[in-house]
Amino acid sequence: MSLTSFEFVIFVGAAVAGYYLIPKRFQWVWLLAFSYIYYAAASLKILFFLLFSTATTYLAGLLMDRIKEKQADREQRIKQKRRVVAAALVLNFGMLAVVKYTNFAIENINALLGSHLSFQTIILPLGISFYTFQSMGYLLDVYWEKVEAERNPFRFALFVSFFPQILQGPIGRFNRLAHQLYESHDFDWGRMERAFILILWGFFKKMVIADNAAGFVDEVFGNYGSYGGAAIVVAVLGYSVQLYGDFSGGMDVVRGIAELFGISLDENFRRPYFAVSITDFWHRWHITLGTWMKDYVFYPLSLSKMMGRFSKAAKKRFGKSIGRTLPICLANIIVFLLVGVWHGADWKFILYGLYNGLIIAFSGLMMQNYRKWKNLCHINEKAPLWKGFQIARTFLLVNISWYFDRAAGVGEAFDMMRITLTSFRLSDFWNGSLMLESVDLVALRFVIVGFGCILLFLVSLLQERGVKIREAITGRHVLIKYAVYLFLIFVLPALGQPPSAGGGFIYAQF
Amino acid sequence: MEKLIAILEDINPDVDYANCTTLIDDGILDSFAILSIVSELHDEFGVYVTPVDITPDNFNSAQALWDMVQRLQG
Amino acid sequence: MRSFKRIMKIVLFLSICLAINGVFVYMLVPNSFIRIKVHNIENEKYDDIFVGSSHGFAAVNPVVVDGETGRKSINLCYGGEYLRDSYYLLKDACRTHIPERVIYELDPGYWVNPDTENPTYAMAYSNMSPSLVKAEYCFAKITDADFRSALFPWFHYRKQYGMIPQNLKDKREESYRNFDAAPLEEPTQVMSDEGFMYIKNSEGEKTKANMVLWDESKVLEEVPMYFHKLVRFCREKEIELVVMTTPVPEETLEEHSGNYKEADRYFAELMEEYGIRYLNFNTMETDGFQRGVEGFSDYEGHMFGGNAENFSRVLAEYLR
């Protein structure tokens, strides 16, 4: 069920209505039922994958807790738990890898060895990237004894399958999410109102901003050979706006829906384009993936014995400062390679990850030098001008990364960069060439996207200053409240665009 | 303890480590800094910090760090 | 009491939404053939009902057919009417009066090309009067659509804000309230009150665009399913079901003879399985109308009005 379909509206309506009518102690069961109905409605066949992950993770968790209780010998305990967690990780990530990367592997093996292995038709099970990460996070939390394994298999099934987040995240943590799912919630008018505002705002970002920008972006990225650098730059900026509107809009809708049940999902976006560095950007963009990588890959990898040995050798060779930073840089690059790979089975995503990883690693190495230079130039870190420079610089770096993310492939990405630099065609900005004929009502779209961005910018600015916008709206006089609601409701069909061919939300395909 | 503060100042100067209790919460120490600190703690005090130990409770202040080091030293 | 106040506020808010929505509908949704057809089917009694696609829309003149058969028929076909739509239109018609016969104009292209959201997607639905049939239709079709298509009937017309003055003018006319087809006349075509689209003769190049060729591997799951439902429904209500395929230009048949022959075979077999009379005018050797492209407005299969009336006469012979 697509998030924008009418049947999904009816589905959520039924789920919410029932949730508050049934006895409180069955509320979590109701959620479980609806989550499975949602998943089964998508496809009965791929339900198998969800059940497989749920079962293996549940059993592994229980097993490890048992070992923790029964095994007195510390060495043995660690060894046995390690076997269990390794098996479960291999099974689940293995399945994810097979389903997502088999054809990519085949393609590259063919290219490398000249073989002719045929491609398999593999359907990507709905949400597998998200629920696999979420349950593996739980598994590692149990392994590290941060949480206790969930005893009730049905409660655990709900944690894995909770329907609002299954399509595109956010990737939740057991210690924050589970108890909310299982607790009972009272009906609260105020909360319902705030949740609806969030949902409508999410749709605004998706339908009015992202879907309107998509036309221009798709056309230029699809036929970049016919356009100059100016058009490409506009398309990349448009993609900046489209991807943010689409993904964060989807997140708002999902979080809003969860809030209808009284459940708070983790934030996935925090005004990413206000970031002052690429590091900061990844604390603001797809936050739950970043923190997942940090807690479950970055720290464990950096603190592993192997890294320890590398660190010792590096310190000997390069001195203390660089020596201790190099292993962190290496771990960071590995993490971002994984982030790239997570996005999809294509070399361009690997480059995308590498690009981000290298920038962060480099700035980590240069940290002390940067400090020296800033002091030399008497740069005041807190000055607005400096901050503005940092934001602009980061925005530029991020937009360069979008070439890799959005272009059809690596070759195309580099091609487009080359055209941007060598044949910019500055005059395209004022001679009307940007009003592409093949994009329906292109001038109007520019206006709508521009209007949407201004509104988005103002809202983001307020939020960055700490203003709680939804509370501010619901607290106002009823006429103002109604005006805002009516605007948000009617702007969707009035200015919104149906999704581009291929439909739906961009991140729902992972 | 002075040793610890010296380490912290080397990695991330211009912070009042004697009084600050929100090193993590306010984002003063990022993950690079945290791991650099861990590396130095190992060299200086011989302690092994594991991923489980990296929590705001242990890293929010110099005092909390010192408590953790002492705990890990056994 | 607090709850009551709250509920009243919500009711008030929803009423405002409905009112605003109504204003947008009034301003943006133009008059349409489908609106008139649905009105007729819900308010008149017909013996024969023709359902199907734009081919049937252009090819069947009920008045001519009735002249031979002595029955009262209506042409319910329109461009974009899929089997699912025909099925529910028939069910809607049966609320008023159960016809004696249904003739389903089968265009093979509609069995291999999915229904997509466009202005006609929800048009028949939104023009139907509220009933259980409409509710069933909603769950069968509208729920798949974007919620904006479902909740805001003017959504697909939002870009035609330039038409607002014309729409406002049209809707104030009596002919609009009387469901006359005359105001919809255009230079190229005019619809009769019985639902027949007379395409006026024209010179100039004929397009080969929009051709959807038959491909058995692409048959959509739901179309045969709705055919089955249609057959069963007709049996239940004792309605005679006849299936026909209107002729396409000879030139097209020759150019894509492979596809058309396979389609012919597929449907001949299917109709035999069901025991249903199938009039495939592409394989039947009848004359009385022009088979060459000079009788059609395009290569796809939309007849000129004059040719269509001749065809209707021939068709009537088989429907006597």
From TrEMBL, chain A:
What topology does it adopt in the membrane?
Answer: Multi-pass membrane protein
Instruction: State which residue ranges cross the membrane.
Output: 5-22, 37-63, 84-102, 122-144, 224-245, 322-343, 349-367, 442-462, 483-508
Record keywords, A-Z: Acyltransferase, Cell membrane, Membrane, Transferase, Transmembrane, Transmembrane helix
Using the UniProt record, give the first listed, main subcellular location.
Answer: membrane
Molecular function GO terms recorded: acyltransferase activity
Q: What are the GO BP annotations of this UniProt entry?
A: alginic acid biosynthetic process
Q: Does the keyword Protein biosynthesis apply?
A: no
**InterPro entries linked:** Ac/AlaTfrase_AlgI/DltB (IPR024194), AlgI (IPR028362), MB_O-acyltransferase (IPR051085), MBOAT_fam (IPR004299)
This protein's GO CC annotations: plasma membrane
Where does the UniProt annotation locate this protein? Cell membrane
Cross-referenced Pfam families:
MBOAT (PF03062)
Similarity section:
Belongs to the membrane-bound acyltransferase family.
PANTHER family this protein is in? Answer: ACYLTRANSFERASE (PTHR13285), PROTEIN-CYSTEINE N-PALMITOYLTRANSFERASE RASP (PTHR13285:SF18)
Q: By what name is this protein known?
A: D-alanyl-lipoteichoic acid acyltransferase DltB, MBOAT superfamily
From TrEMBL, chain B:
List the InterPro entries hit by this protein, alphabetically.
ACP-like_sf, PP-bd_ACP
Going by the entry's taxonomy, the superkingdom of the source organism is recorded as Bacteria
Q: Which residues form the Carrier domain?
A: 1-73
Q: What is the protein name for this chain?
A: Carrier domain-containing protein
What is the taxonomic lineage of the source species? Bacteria, Bacillati, Bacillota, Clostridia, Lachnospirales
TrEMBL record, chain C:
Q: Would you say which domain of life the source belongs to?
A: Bacteria
Q: Tell me the protein's name.
A: SGNH/GDSL hydrolase family protein
Q: Which organism is it from?
A: Anaerobium acetethylicum
Q: What are the leading ranks of the lineage? A: Bacteria, Bacillati, Bacillota, Clostridia, Lachnospirales
